[in-house]
Amino acid sequence: MEKGKVTYCTDLEKSVIISNFERRGWIQVGPEDEWNFYWSFTQNCRNIFSIESGYRMNDNQIINHFPNHYELSRKDLLVKNIKRYRKELEREGNPLAEKTEIILPNGQTATRYLHLDFIPVTYVLPADYNMFVEEYRKSPQSTWIMKPCGKSQGAGIFLINKLSKLKKWSREAKTPLHPQISSKESYVISRYIDNPLLIGGKKFDLRLYVLVTSFRPLKAYLFQHGFCRFCTVKYDTSVTELDNMYVHLTNVSVQKHGGDYNNLHGGKMSIQNFRLYLEGTRGRSVTEKLFADMQWLIVHSLKAVAPVMANDRHCFECYGYDIIIDNALKPWLVEVNASPSLQSTTHNDRILKYKLIDNIVSVVVPPDGIPDARWNKIPSNDALGDFDVLIDEELIDKEEAPPRCNKFNRYRS
Fold first, then answer.
1. Half-sphere exposure of 97 toward its Cβ, with a 13 Å CA cutoff?
2. What is the 8-class DSSP label of residue 183?
3. Is the distance from CB of 343 to CB of 368 less than 8 angstroms?
4. Among 47, 153, 162, 354, which one is most buried in terms of CB atoms within 10 A?
5. pLDDT band at 105 (very low <50, low <70, confident <90, very high)
6. Is the CB of residue 39 less than 8 Å from the CB of residue 12?
């Protein structure tokens, strides 16, 4: 490699990636060649880090995934890590783990975490089947959503409101629900948020982009340009619509097949317009609280996985956070994607994703423009572009947080 020339390798032949790298004067090479920056698929990243590969990265190589990202992005492991995090804080007597009693719709009481109640009640099947049945019986009128742990883009998801429906599925799918029988595929079953905030009568979720450059110390950044993804059909809780995924799932990969899908805006609204809409309809203070609550949720989901993440200094990762907001303006974490789609469905989408990649590179590459795993990973304010510092534990410890970090000092725990 010529001195000063940066080489890159990508598994994803997308123009938003290649045009970004070419604009920087970087040269494309293959994965077998000497590369400095690798935009890889998760599986290829895991292969590089596997003991069998025998590959050793040098100081001038960085890659866009952590080797065990699935601790955050697999639905069952995310739930397990959050539950463990709560228990550990509880054992330490940390006020973050404070609990409170809530009244369920049927009048029964249940105990919930006051500050860390940001994932719907969730169980992993078949392992937690008995615990799920116990919880289900407390409020048999409720709806639950089943998701296969390892799939994405809305594949294999369905809703149930009767235990018999779950048992019928178990028989037909030949997936035993008996906790003692190990099944090929595990599922998570979560209480369905059946009181979502609606806009124009339609359900939506939020996609936010979070860049993590280190888990220990935790360094995370939130991209300012998230968006809402809408269902194409008006929301309806009636039993007859329980199987209509155009009503319940916001995934673009599902909605674009619906007859009412709009190619111009792609069923999307920018987070800035969403914020303006909320300020206009609900007021500024509750809107600000919601946005602060979403940041809180992201930080604590990252803190929950930080102890188990393989915190390799060559790695960074951009996660797609999917959040649903209920009509009480409470945010709920639905899932985290380690490979958020860079597919552009609209013109605005293309602009947003180009900027996202550009800003990611600015944050993760040192000021001299040469990837370096030894760098202290403290970008300048200019390098942040449209990222805001969510948390930087190193700066908090040094008590020298930059101006764009001060408001998040409350995350110290």
1. 14
2. P
3. no
4. 354
5. low
6. yes
Omega within 30 of 0 (cis) for the link into 105: no
List the end-to-end C-alpha distance of the chain, in Å, as a whole number: 45
Give the pLDDT confidence of 155-196 residue by residue, as tens digits: 678 888 888 888 887 777 666 666 554 555 688 999 999 899
Angle between helices 284-305 and 271-282 (to 10 degrees): 130
Cβ atoms of 154 and 145 closer than 8 Å: no
What distance in Å separates the CA atoms of residue 26 and residue 268, rounded to the nearest whole number? 33
Closest CA to 190 of 72, 68, 332, 330: 332
Cβ–Cβ < 8 Å for 176, 183: yes
- Model pLDDT, residue 299: 98
Instruction: Give the pair of three-digit tokens for residue 350.
Output: 């293309």
Residue found under tokens 């742990």: 149
Beta bridge partners of 27: 7
Structural contact between residues 255 and 229, judged by C-beta atoms closer than 8 angstroms = yes
> What tokens does 186 get?
């595990």
